[in-house]
Amino acid sequence: MRKFLLLAVLVPLVLAAGWYYFHERTLPGYGPLYREFAYISNGKSNTVTVVDVRSFLPVRTLQVGSDPTGVAANPKRNEVYVVNSGSSNVSVIDAEQNKVVATIGVYGRPFFVDVSPDGRRAYVANSGSDNVSVLDLDRRTVVATLHVGRMPGLARVSPDGSTVVVSNRADNSASIIDTSRLTVRAAINICIHPEDIAILPDSSKAFVSCSGSGQVASIDLKNDKLLALLDVGKSPVSLALKPDGGELAAFNFEAGSISIIETTGNEVSGSYLIGDQPSRGVVSRDNSRLYVSNFGSNNIAVYDIDFGKVVAYLPVGTHPDALALSQNQNYLLVLDSGSGDLAVIQKRTPKKKFEPSEYSLLTIIPVGMEPNQIVVKSFLATKILEGR
Prior knowledge:
The protein is mostly beta strands. It has 1 helix and 32 strands. It has a domain at about 65-190: Methylamine Dehydrogenase, Chain H.
């Protein structure tokens, strides 16, 4: 009896110590001023969950506006912006304090926000009012409202900051905004129900996925004209561009496949079955791996770009959707929109026989109801405020 009681006490302690050792061993060391947070918009909770990516612990839940959707980080300052679709405004989060410091009113049903490379402006597509709000982030005010097509979904800024491309879902067009003049310089008819937008690193072309026609449009941004309509699979809902710009992946939601597009020649090099209802993806910084969230099969597909094949399927929570990579690229953050949590997948080099895979599920973190977007912000804090 004593032996049994001793085991009952010791075994949980040993398991806990083993988990602690594993957890501590696999997380890298950081300097005292280094901060890295993931910001998650919870659409039905009207909140943003802040997760410390150094420890993978939730540190704050922030009340924002109604039905938060799009999230974007400022590349030049320690701020994060959250679009509140239900209350038609944008919440400004100070990343050093992790608190909401301002709210900027826009127009009806905004869904997406993107920030210029210099960090001075943000562009918000207002789906309910057929316009784009231009925000001055220094003054935290709206400086222009530009009329575009019907039901704009996204407004994407080019890497050189000179152009914004808007996908107008209801009239099958793309609007091209000149950021220096703050005018719409072109409206281009493309394909049916345009949604996601990817712009090449040299800002020469934009690619727009059209879920209604199973196509991706290629647009010349130097001459503002349609170059090609590329047939992919059924319902391409989103796009993921390699960092080098050479290839683009379209996620064909109803076809259960991805299509790989050669961006220079505007050609589809192939389509591959990937899982049930692939919704979004992200490419590693070294251009080698594409991570795909399979919304319908509750897993992540790891696609090796060089070899053109899936090398792993990783089970996560219910209805995985938005994805993000940590700054060091060793952790994949997966939002499970159905189960309301964040799955953290670790990538490492196996060192022992009982570690056969380079991927493993590190932890699952509860967030809010129907999480829909995530962004990671890393920076050096101006002062030491641990966990804030």
